[in-house]
Amino acid sequence: MAMKSPFSHPLLVADMAAIISEDYFEPWHLISEHQQKSELAKQFGATATFVGSMRDFNDDADVSEMLLEHYPEMTKRYLEKLEHDAKQQWPIIDCLIAHRVGHIKPADAIVVIACWSAHRRAALDACNWLIEQLKFNAPFWKKESRPDGNVWVEHNTAG
Amino acid sequence: MSIQVKFFASLREQVGLSDITIEQASTAAEVWDLATDKQQQPDNVLVAINLEYAKLNSSVNDGDEVAFFPPVTGG
């Protein structure tokens, strides 16, 4: 579990997790379960999380459902690369990324990112970086069910 | 030579294909022309070769997988 660290102190790093799920997940349960199962939990001084959920509106239109398509082989690889790259930039001990695909209902969680580190800054900065990288580069596409038909979302919101 | 070509999301619907195999091409742009019968290419099309982002003028080789897709909207 010990790995060469780009940082000044020896860093134990858990096997990080990238989950792509067609099934509903409860985001806080996922985060809590991951933390409780971690062998390194006693080293966690900070946990930063981001949970993105489906709205029932977009661009002033009602949205009743969403279909989330992805490029399965590339998605998994890309999310794991993001976790690896985050580890190179910040002393994070553990990291979890989970993303839904398939049919999604309003209020369902779409994405979960959690970063654990000894101190707050690394977890916060890595979590922020990961969600921005994911939103603008990971190969997922949303198709919304609106009153006037099904519409592909053409771009992300600025933030 | 054999190149697997994939299309995703709105681009798949626009092109009318999810995947196709082509026999010969030297760049991703040429793959697009051959796979789509020279359909108009959207300005914002993204391309990946063997699961890594690439450019339209990137070279392709025998056995490559080339994917075309629109801007991503996950998260």
Short description:
The complex is a heterodimer of chains A (about 160) and B (about 80). With about 160 residues, chain A is α+β, with helices and mostly antiparallel strands.
Plain-language structure description:
The complex is a heterodimer of chains A (159) and B (75). Chain A starts with a strand and ends in a 7-residue tail after the last strand. Chain A has helices at residues 27-37, 72-89, 120-137; strands at residues 2-3, 11-12, 17-21, 46-53, 57-58, 61-62, 65-70, 92-100, 102-104, 109-117, 140-146, 149-152. Chain A has a single domain (22-152), classed as Aldehyde Oxidoreductase, domain 3 (Alpha-Beta Complex). Chain A is an alpha+beta fold. In chain A, helix 2 runs antiparallel to helix 3. The longest helix of chain A has 18 residues, at 72-89. Chain B has one domain: Beta-grasp domain (Ubiquitin-like (UB roll), Roll). A five-stranded mixed sheet of chain B has the order 2-1-5-3-4. By secondary structure, chain B is an alpha+beta fold. The longest helix of chain B has 9 residues, at 28-36. The chains are: A alpha+beta (159), B alpha+beta (75). The A-B interface holds A 52, 68-71, 73-74, 77-78, 99, 110-111, 131, 134-143, 152-156 and B 6, 8-10, 48, 51, 53, 67, 69-75.
Write the SSE topology:
The complex is a heterodimer of chains A (159) and B (75).
Chain A: E1 2-3, E2 11-12, E3 17-21, H1 27-37, E4 46-53, E5 57-58, E6 61-62, E7 65-70, H2 72-89, E8 92-100, E9 102-104, E10 109-117, H3 120-137, E11 140-146, E12 149-152
Parallel strand pairs in A: 3-8
Antiparallel strand pairs in A: 1-2, 4-10, 5-6, 7-9, 7-11, 8-10, 11-12
Chain B: E1 3-7, H1 9-15, E2 19-22, H2 28-36, E3 46-49, E4 52-54, E5 65-69
Parallel strand pairs in B: 1-5
Antiparallel strand pairs in B: 1-2, 3-4, 3-5
